[in-house]
Amino acid sequence: MQVNAAVMPEPGQIEIREFEKPSLANDALLLKVDGVGICGSDKHMYLGHTNLNFPVIPGHEASGIVAEIGKDANQVMNVMGGPIKEGDCITVVPGSKNCGKCYYCLRFASRPTLCTNRTIYGFSNCESPPYLTGEFSEYTYIHGNSWVYKIPDGIPEKIRVLTEPVAVATRAVERANAPGVAQVGEGYGIGNRVAVLGCGPIGLLVVAVLRGTGAGTIIATDIVASRLEMAKRMGADVAIDVSQTTSEERVEQIQELTDGIGVDLVIECAGLPNVFAEALNVVRRGGKVIELGHYTDSGSIQVRPHQICNKDLDICGVWAYPQIQFQTALDFLERTDAPLQDLVTHYLPLSRLEEGIQMLGQEGVYKVVIEPHR
Ligand SMILES: [Zn+2]
Ligand SMILES: [Zn+2]
């Protein structure tokens, strides 16, 4: 059997190549990809913003079906919600199991994304067997070192493909929880006032998660009016149009909305350096800033370190999420009443991946899903 996969030989190029279907090791499984979302990071990869060992088969947001499974896979993999068998609907954490041996694994086990020996589906070289290392492909080879989740029946089919981005969004909010002493305002808690800066798919999911966790006033900002409408549907109370206001006006407006105090928490989801500087301006003294948007390096900006010192701020980065975060994401997807289905806006066949990547960021485009078997 031949398998079609979208290969990026180098940034700016995508071609569909045929691969021989790999023979399966006893601890592996073959994932038949039903749908896989295009991520902002795929666009960054296409634009040459990521330093990877090309050629790469991108794609890391798949849900699909177990097409074949090795006899030891359930024992060797970390299978959640299983055991799994042929025909089961699953999703796979892009990051493999941790090595357990590197500097970070030995000392900072609670931060698995720091492991220096992980492999990541959709970001790995595809030149050697079993080749199918990414999910913009009819099939992906899931090796024994993986975390696999059975998708609960209660999650509507349309939003299954959001599991990975929801893992990102829930991790950002959980990052804000620490140290979690809510009654003294230390760490994000119920009723807190939050600003979400940037309303692409991740920012919108962050809004939905915040609303689900009992946030107080949620203020969303973006440069596109229709995204601000969407932010309100996801649970934002106030939407501020960046294209119609100056940075000073936005700071003023947020001060007015928070009794002259500033927000308890800011989550930066735009990935633009000047938005990080704005986060420092709108957060209250003793508040928290979560930097989520800068998954790739988009340059530098002047900040005033005195603000950080004087405001006694906590600033936290978010580098992906622990593998167990997929459980949080699936639990959220099963229970949320946010209209997440509205975020899945386009479906394309594998041959139109390049077009899909170029659509990201356009008006009315949120999650574009590639369906390799369509
Ligand atoms: Zn992603
Ligand atoms: Zn490690």
* Strand portion: 15-25%
Main sheet record: 8 strands, mixed
Structural class: alpha/beta
What's the pLDDT, averaged over the residues?
96
**Small molecules bound in the structure, each named once:** zinc ion
| Shape field | globular
CATH topology of the largest domain: Quinone Oxidoreductase, Chain A, domain 1
> How far apart, in Å, are the first and last alpha carbons?
17 Å
Computed CA radius of gyration, to the nearest angstrom: 21 Å
Total DSSP helices: 11
CATH C-level class of the largest domain: Alpha Beta
Low-confidence stretches: none
Please give the domain count. Answer: 2
CATH architecture of the largest domain: Alpha-Beta Complex
CATH superfamily of the largest domain: Medium-chain alcohol dehydrogenases, catalytic domain
Element order, helices and strands?
EEEHEHEEHEEHEHEHEHEHEHEHEHE
Q: Which range best describes the helical content: under 10%, 10-25%, 25-40%, 40-55%, 55-70% or over 70%?
A: 25-40%
Q: Tally of extended strands?
A: 16
In a few lines, what is going on in this structure?
By secondary structure, the chain is α/β, with parallel strands linked by helices. It is built from eleven helices and 16 strands.
Features:
374 residues, alpha/beta, Quinone Oxidoreductase, Chain A, domain 1, Rossmann fold, 2 domains, eight-stranded mixed β-sheet, six-stranded parallel β-sheet, 11 helices, 26% helix, binds zinc ion
Can you give a write-up of this model?
- The protein has 374 residues and is of the alpha/beta class.
- It has two domains: 2-151 and 339-371, Alpha-Beta Complex (Quinone Oxidoreductase, Chain A, domain 1); 165-317, Rossmann fold, CATH 3.40.50.
- 26% of the residues lie in helices and 23% in strands.
- It has helices spanning 40-46, 73-76, 103-107, 163-177, 201-212, 225-234, 247-257, 273-282, 305-310, 325-335, 353-359; strands at residues 2-7, 15-20, 29-37, 62-69, 78-80, 89-92, 139-142, 147-150, 194-197, 218-222, 238-241, 263-268, 283-291, 314-317, 344-349, 367-371.
- Strands 3, 4, 5, 6, 7, 8, 15 and 16 form an eight-stranded mixed sheet that branches. Strands 11-10-9-12-13-14 form a six-stranded parallel sheet, with helices on both faces.
- The mean pLDDT is 96.
- It binds zinc ion (2 copies).
- Residues 39, 41, 60-61, 164-165 line the site of one zinc ion.
